[in-house]
Amino acid sequence: MASLAISPAPLWNPARERLRFLPLLETELEEFHGQEVQLLADALRLLSSSATPAPVRRVVGDLVYQLRRRCGEHPLAALRWASCLLHVSRSALVATLALEVLDDAVAHTWMLTPQERQELKAQVEPMLSESAWRPRCGAVLRALGEQEHIARHSQSAPLPRCKSLPNVEIDPKPSPQSPMSATQKLRSPTRQEREYLPADARR
Fold first, then answer.
1. Do 144 and 109 touch, CB atoms closer than 8 A?
2. Is residue 118 part of a domain?
3. Does residue 163 form part of some domain?
4. Is the distance from CB of 43 to CB of 93 less than 8 angstroms?
5. Under 8 Å between Cβ of 84 and 32
6. Which of 112, 109, 142 has its CA nearest to residue 128?
7. Which of 97, 113, 117, 193 would bridge with 189, disulfide CB 3.0–4.6 Å?
8. Per-residue DSSP letters for the chain?
9. 73 in a structural domain
10. C-beta of residue 79 within 8 angstroms of C-beta of residue 105
11. How confident is the model at residue 63 (pLDDT cuts 50, 70, 90)?
12. Could you tell me how far CA 75 lies from the centroid of its own chain?
């Protein structure tokens, strides 16, 4: 009777796993594409697996934490990055992370273009069917709806009218007798006034 071959357990190496997932930090958020999104999905899968050793979990978790912190420092890039994740990946773990990033940056949705907001809305709306995603989906959709309402109102609102100023003619050459004129000469005292002036003032 042939014996069944038992596959050896994988040899985990935290340093090797860190090098494997380091491109997640070396790649700009705007440059994430299919390969980087798949690498992120693998990292999240390791974090969610109970078979992952604690040292590997700490290393990979630290990389994902630094990635999340960079998203917090660049909200516009984070919004576009999360939208890219929803568009490219079919992983539930990646979709959950994308919704968390969108929820954190929901106050900055006004920075997106109208087309980007419409595309993001089309990606988030189908996710409302999942109860675990519904709260964050609702928050993102409400923010997008508010921005759409503000955009429509700003386009339809009339411009405020300026009050007309009265027609006032300004003389460019002020009169020499004007009290505000800087060139007005002092009047010399009369003889009668000089007799009553003190001796110092007569000079």
1. yes
2. yes
3. no
4. no
5. yes
6. 142
7. 193
8. -PPPPPPPPP---HHHHHHHHTHHHHS-GGG--HHHHHHHHHHHHHHH-TTS-HHHHHHHHHHHHHHHHHHHH-HHHHHHHHHHHHHH---HHHHHHHHHHHHHTGGGGGGS-HHHHHHHHHHHGGGGGSTTTHHHHHHHHHHHHHHHHHHHHHHHSPPPPPPPPP-----SS--TT-TT-TTPPPPPPPHHHHHHS-TGGG-
9. yes
10. yes
11. very high
12. 4
Structure tokens at 160: 């405020």
Asked if the structure places residue 55 within a domain, the reply is: yes
**Residues 88, 33: Cα–Cα separation, whole Å:** 8
Q: Residue 94 is part of which domain span?
A: 14-157
User: pLDDT digits over 106-150, tens only?
Assistant: 999 999 999 999 999 999 999 999 999 999 999 999 999 998 888
- Number of domains making up the chain: 1
**Sign of the CA dihedral running 113, 115, 120, 121:** positive
How much is the pLDDT for 12? 87
Q: Report the candidate in 30, 95, 107, 101 with the shortest Cα–Cα distance to residue 65.
A: 101
pLDDT for res 162: 59
Angle CA(24)–CA(29)–CA(33) in degrees, nearest 5? 75
